[in-house]
Amino acid sequence: MTDRKKQSLIAGGLTSSAGIFLSKALGIIYVVPFAAMATEANLTYYARAYSIYDTILNISIAGLPFAIAALVAKYTVKDDYKTVVLIRKLSTAILLVSGFLAMAFLIIFALPIAQFTVAGAIDSVEVLRTRNVLIIISLAVFAVPFLSSFRGFYQGLKELKIYAFSQILEQVSRIAFLLGMGFLAVYVFNKDAIWAVYFAVASAAASALISIGYFVFVDRKNYPAIKERAINQVLPTKDTREVVKELFYFAIPYMITVILGNSMNIVNLLLFNHAMIWAGSTVAHADLLYSLIMFTCNKLTSIPQVLAPGFSIAVIPYITAAIERGDMKLMRKYVVDALDTVLYVGLPLCFFLFAISGEIYYVMYGSANWQLGGNVLAWSSLLAVVGTVAPVAGALMMVLRLRKSTIIILLIGAVIKAVTMVPLILWTGYSGAITSSVLTSIFIIAADLYLISKNYKVKFSLTLRRLMLISVGLVSMEAVFMILKLIGLNVIGEHRLLAFAELSVYGILGVAAYVITTWFMQLPQVLFQVSAASLKKRFKR
Predict the structure, then answer these.
(1) What mean pLDDT is predicted for residues 102-106?
(2) Are 226 and 74 in contact (CB under 8 A)?
(3) What is each CA distance from 21 to 171, 271, 349, 389, 533, in whole angstroms?
(4) What count of other Cβ atoms lies within 10 Å of the Cβ of residue 181?
(5) Which DSSP string do the residues of 127-188 spell out, in sequence order?
């Protein structure tokens, strides 16, 4: 590994976010042909599989990728490469074992989990198909933790370009497998449409194996240099038991926060259908709304939310290194930079989903249920906002070693979600599930930022002022959208290609209005340390 100049935190965060963004963008592109192959009736099985997959996977990983990144960053700063190599070996072994146990658990309990979530007879088609997708997704539950051990290692080394490329590769290979095998099954061999879902679920494991192969290739170039430094190191390596203890000292709080952080999805999975039926909905309509919230619209709201994992990935090695060096001023700057950048980039994306939700849904998914889908997307845009900020605030809490407080806050948040969702659904309908999640996230964000400010003297007054300037930029976006509607760019009802072109006009002009307005107020220049002159020089190059 060379000692070349590393990226800044903002550059690293944006690099990670860009990789995730491209993965998500590709994920949105495949939805249209996949939905056509699988049919709308079967999409709920895909949504259920991934809801449970996310939960089981996060438990099996147990925060170890974050712990790996933090410890690799810590001991790299200290030039203790023997311990870095030891961390790599131990973490890989632990994640392989945990992935195997999680896979076994999901296979054994697939049927009872399926029956409970569907609320149907044990031999019904719905229960049996749900069981099948859970068994298939268990393969990914085994493969992805192993992949995460590589990602955590290179994250700790601040090699975020490698990290980002692995995510793009994983998504490209997943889509190729998903669409290719689904097409063969449904259109060539005339299998039932549910087989498109089965292969879509299996694609998670196939793409993880391909990404693992990429890291094996990267290791051949980078890992020997690290092992050579370890061999030549004079300082003795740390005791294995101490390293294991330190890994779990970091990992267990992360594991608990991940489980609690997924509590909103768990509550939705367990209670949404029941609450909707109590509110007078049919099972079919409840399934449709669940798939709209958890899969269809979630694909769109996940676009701005890529900033959350992107900057959560970046803050761990950078802030860890600053703390190890005792540079508290730099640490505070990193905290504010991360939060302000996420707000500046994320909020216009979220507002875009809210302001023209019906048009976006029509372009992406067609005329079927576009009004209902547009309404769900408008509500879900609120989830996009809090779902972008809350994980970054939580990552900052964890890397700043406020782990106990983070767990308490998330535990309270889980209680808020569990207590409020059913009454809100009974009162307002499906939107109650979204409202309860938003209220939960607002509490978590406010509590996290208060404790960061209290314990580390981080001042967020500048963030609030910048948020006001961002709001002015959002107003300019809305003004552009209103003008476009007045001149006849309706999008809805047009041919899909024409509708896509018109929607692109909304996006380009809306973003341009936002950037120009905020540029006039000097916001991007301050955040990204750029100027008109520097941009001209880069463009000429």
Answers:
(1) 90
(2) no
(3) 11, 31, 12, 16, 28
(4) 18
(5) HHHHHHHHHHHHHHHHHHHHHHHHHHHHHHTT-HHHHHHHHHHHHHHHHHHHHHHHHIIIII
Report the first-to-last Cα separation within the chain, whole angstroms.
28
Q: What is the pLDDT of residues 327-357, one digit of tens each?
A: 888 888 888 888 888 888 889 989 999 998 8
Q: How far apart are CA 317 and CA 150, in angstroms?
A: 15
Q: Which residues of 307-321 are buried (b: 16+ CB within 10 A; e: fewer)?
A: bbbbbbbbbbbbbbb
Query: Within 13 A of 412's CA, how many CA atoms are on the CB side?
Result: 14
358 has a pLDDT exceeding 90: no
Residue 270 neighbours by CB under 8 Å, 6+ apart = 116, 117
Q: Considering the chain, what is the average pLDDT of its residues? A: 83
The arithmetic mean of pLDDT across residues 145-172, rounded, is 84
Q: How confident is the model over 259-274, as a mean pLDDT?
A: 78
Q: What is the residue type of 422?
A: V
| pLDDT tens per residue across span 524-536 | 888 777 665 554 5
Domain ranges of the chain: 1-241
One-letter amino acid at 3 equals D
Report the pLDDT value the prediction gives residue 509, as an integer from 0 to 100: 95
Q: Say which residues have a Cβ less than 8 Å from residue 469's Cβ, sequence separation at least 6.
A: 518, 521, 523
- With a cut of 70, say whether residue 432 has pLDDT above it: yes
Contact between 235 and 82 under an 8 Å Cβ cutoff? The reply is yes
DSSP string of 319-374?
HHHHHHHT-HHHHHHHHHHHHHHHHHHHHHHHHHHHHTHHHHHHHHH-STTHHHHH
Q: How far apart are CA 98 and CA 370, in angstroms?
A: 42
Q: Is 123 helix (H, G, I), strand (E, B) or coil?
A: coil
Cα-Cα-Cα-Cα dihedral sign, residues 60, 210, 173, 28: positive
Q: Could you tell me if 441 and 387 are in contact, meaning their C-beta atoms sit under 8 angstroms apart?
A: yes
How far apart CA 256 and CA 493 sit, in angstroms, is: 47
Determine the 3-state secondary structure of 495 from DSSP: coil
Q: In 3-state terms, what secondary structure has residue 269?
A: helix
* Helix, strand, coil content of the chain in percent (nearest 5): 85, 0, 15
**Which residue type occupies 443?**
F
Query: Tens digits of per-residue pLDDT, 249-260?
Result: 777 777 777 777
